[in-house]
Amino acid sequence: MITLTSRGSGWGGVFALGLILCFSTGCALTAKQKAAVSQFSDSAATLGDVTSSELKAMRHGAVKMTIERLLLGGKSKDPNLGDQTSLDRGFELNRVETVSAATLALAAYGKTLASLVDDTQSADLNVASHEFVASLGNVPEAKKQLTDEQLEAIGTAIQEVGTLWVDWKRKQAVTTIVKASRQAVDHLCDLLIRDFDPKRGWVALQLQVIEDPLIAEATNALYDGRTYNDRKIALDAFRLAHGNKMRRTEVLTRVVDAAVAMKQANGALVRAVDQLGWSVQDIRSFAERVRSLTNAAHIIVTE
Amino acid sequence: MAKSLGEELSAALSNITALIIKTESKSERSQLTRQQAKLAGQLQVFVDQVVDEALPEYEEATEALKEANTEAEAAKRKLDKVASSIKKFATAIDKLQSLAEMVS
Question: What are the C-alpha distances in Å from A172 to residues A22, A55, A117, A160, B9?
């Protein structure tokens, strides 16, 4: 803690005012609150990014599977299915772009919230307070009345008040943003839970519409195949369908699990910033689900 | 709980695909493959309808999250401004000192 003589009492007053202001309002986020916001933000950013890249991989897979089905069986037997003029049927650019924009907005929100909690201001405040003291030291009147120690104390006071001010504003900002965003985050979680459901969601059904006809044509090609090359072509198609099926069953399940956990964690985060009896368990559970999704996405790489 | 049309079509599609895999008769497989294509086509129409309704909801969600992000970015900029404000005070003192020297 700094000490000031009577000549520096003006600065001491400012510092004291800062302290009163701080302690009367609960100065800063606690370490536990910071950790909670940070873990939630990182997980939200990862969920958004991974879901977006998985959607792009699904589009890529849809095009490859449709091409393979056309190669094996010729033109589509039903006009509603993808053909040579609509290879990306079901995962058209507009669909992928719209859903991906939402998950990327979630990722951006997570990243900005994380950067808001990270203390990147301390070093800047240190430099700024030194510059201030150096400037003050150049004023002859100030130099006459203040000793070097007093100037140094003023610099420390500015830095500490600045830090308290920043921490106070940080807490205000995080609390406001987390509470104001709760509904938007919850709503996106609900959309992901509904649409990425591996049994009922449209993403899974769309993948099945593309996979199953390919499996049928690959089966026909395997039964009819007479040579190693015939069978190899059929099995390459099976492998392609299998890789995409893994995405449909494993990745979609994990996206839904993560979205369910995120909704829980979002509620816990609001309670955390309000200091209303909260547990870090929901936020940890969300982080674990997102890790599981990331791992699955890394393992399931279709060729 | 009753299955939705999507679930019914999905289950039927899975069953017919399983049959195609098991059937050794080429003519039966051809017939099943044609039926499978019809079912897949019906499921595609169902999915198209669902997606048409879902996309505007994603657009709304994107807007809401973008607003949240803009607020968070503005708050971050304000925090970063504290140090630069102190630096501006330092610059002002330097300028005032230069001015005082010129006047005296």
Answer: 11, 36, 11, 18, 51
- Cβ–Cβ of B72/A106 closer than 8 Å? no
Q: Report d(CA A259, CA A282) in Å as an integer.
A: 12
pTM of the complete model = 0.85
Domains of chain A: which residue ranges? 26-117+180-299
Q: Which of A166, A188, A219 sits opposite B65 (nearest CB)?
A: A188
> Would the CB atoms of B64 and A184 count as touching at under 8 Å?
yes
Write down the residue that tokens 């201001």 correspond to: A121
- Domain-by-domain residue ranges, chain B? 5-78
Question: Do the beta carbons of residue A110 and residue A42 sit within 8 Å?
Answer: yes
- pLDDT tens for B37-94 read 999 999 999 999 999 999 999 999 999 999 988 988 888 888 888 777 887 887 888 7
B84 Cβ neighbours under 8 A, 6+ residues apart: A124, A128
Sort out which chain B residues have CB atoms less than 8 A from A129's CB and list them: 86
B-chain residues near A11 (CB < 8 A): none
